[in-house]
Structures are given as structure tokens and as C-alpha cells.
Amino acid sequence: MKTGIVLEGGAMRGMFTAGVLDIFIENKVQFDGAIGVSAGAVFGCNLKSLQLGRVIRYNKRFCGNWRYCSLKSWRKTGDLYGADFCYNQLPYRLDPFDVRTYRENPMRFYVVATDAETGKPVYRELERGDGTDMDWFRASASMPVLSRPVMIEGRGYLDGGCSDSIPVKFFESIGYQKNVVLLTQPPGYRKKKSPLLPAVRLMLHRYPALGRDLTERAEVYNAVLDNLEQREKAGDPGLLLIRPSDELNIGKMEKDPEELERVYQIGRETGTRVLERVVEFCGGAGGDGGNDESKRR
């Protein structure tokens, strides 16, 4: 029975995800596969590379750098999160991503991106941690309007959260019968339709299908949450939800290192609290994820 972990996005709410995952790395909790969306992808990939503390380290170091994330970056480059800085300079020079461990770890890692032309989700397994994989990580986290579509093999892709924010059904469809779902909103949260949607659709006039799908995003997302909470309440043995107890109240472009640390520590506290349940859910050591202590950076 394959065990997976599903990682929701949420911009800097991802510091909560990073804290939980670092507890899992420290305690050698293993999964057969993981799938990340947006921040869940770009932060969650460190679970496969076994880089304890990397996410909080580089976010605190660079959160004030305009090239990392800023309106200035958006005006100058078309990307709120600077493409060259975040997906070239940072992983290969400033705080290197451990490509070797990523490749050697048998835990499979998938991301969700959204096809800008069709508005539909695209699920991609990333095995190598190379430049092409970095393009897919970037695509999964590229918010419409605030980012340019990422061109891969002639097609444009944007944030996976536009089409499948919590891809539990996909993971179940490819054989992951037991899934830990790591959310970044508290119990009872439901998304409200944004009043900016008409303006967003206008700015996305080149991608009408994506614009139409975004108008239904809140309803679709809330339906997924309804289903997950119903399954949790019914005691579904194939599902374990982890989420913060309260609103994290952190900005999408948070510049205060102390705020990043605060949310990261909430994640660590949550990970510690649920650790025993997660280990039991995964069947002791979990799947064949290969989280060998000797492979840590």
C-alpha cells in the first residue's frame, strides 16, 4: 500500500509546511511519494532532497531582497518572484539545492501546474532536480497576472493552485491509497470569491479558459475541503489531515524574518504534535522513501 503526502500551496503560509516537513525529516518519516502545489512544490521538494532547515534559512536571508520577491521585481521582470534569482541563482549558487540526494531518494515527487491555454491541471513527476524540473517548480508557483506564463516545450503554464489546489484525487488515482494531506488553512476555512476577479479576467484576456476557471476556483476549492472534512469525520483510514489550528496571518510577500520564523515554528510544533499519528499512519517507518540520515546536507 503506497503512502503519499499532498502539499497545499499558500505563498508564505508555506513556512508552516516547511516546519512540519522538517520535523518529518528529523524523525525519518518516509513516504512513497509526494505531490506539491505552488509553495507546496517549491518548498516541499526539500523533503526529497532531505535539506533540513533550508526553506526557512533562505527565506529569512532573502525576504528583503527585491530580486527574490517584490513589486519592483514584477515591474522590471514581469514576475513577482524573480525567475532568475529564485530558480537559478538561489538553488545553484546562493543556497544550493542538493540535486544528488534529490535524485537518489526513491520517494517520487510530483508537481501540479495549470495549462494557461486550457485552464486544466497538468501533473508532472520531477525526477532529476535539473533546469527543466526547475521550470516546472517555477510554473507550479507562478501566480496569474503577477507572473509570466512559464514556457515549457512550447506551452505556457501557471500556478497549479488555479486548477487543483489539493490534488488528493489525482494521487489516489495513481495508486497512493493512504495520503497525509498538509493544508495551510485552519479547520473550517472556506475561500471567498475575490472581488478582483473581473479585473483578473480582463488582464488574462489572452487566456479566456483560465479566466473562466478562476471564477469557479473558490467553489471548487471549498468542495474539495468539504469532501476531505467529511472523510476525516467518517474516520477514512486512507486519509490524515494536518493543518494549523488557527489562521497563520502572514503576508504573501512577508518581509519580516521574525514573522517567517513564527509561522515556521507553528509548523514545527504541529509536526511534533502529530508525529506519532503520522508514523503510525505510514506503517512505522512509512514507505520506501529512503530518508537515510547519511544523505542529509
Automatic annotation (TrEMBL):
It comes from the Bacteria. The keyword Methyltransferase does not apply. Gene3D superfamilies: Cytosolic phospholipase A2 catalytic domain. GO terms for biological process: lipid catabolic process. A motif (DGA/G) lies at residues 159-161. The keyword Nucleotide-binding does not apply. Pfam families: DUF6363 (PF19890), Patatin (PF01734). Transmembrane segments: none annotated. Coiled coil: none annotated. Keywords: Hydrolase, Lipid degradation, Lipid metabolism. Residues 5-172 form the PNPLA domain. InterPro entries: Acyl_Trfase/lysoPLipase, DUF6363, NTE, PNPLA_dom, YjjU-like. One of its GO terms (molecular function) is hydrolase activity. The active site is at residues 38, 159. A motif (GXSXG) lies at residues 36-40. This is Patatin family protein. It comes from Hornefia porci. The lineage of its organism: Bacteria, Bacillati, Bacillota, Clostridia, Peptostreptococcales.
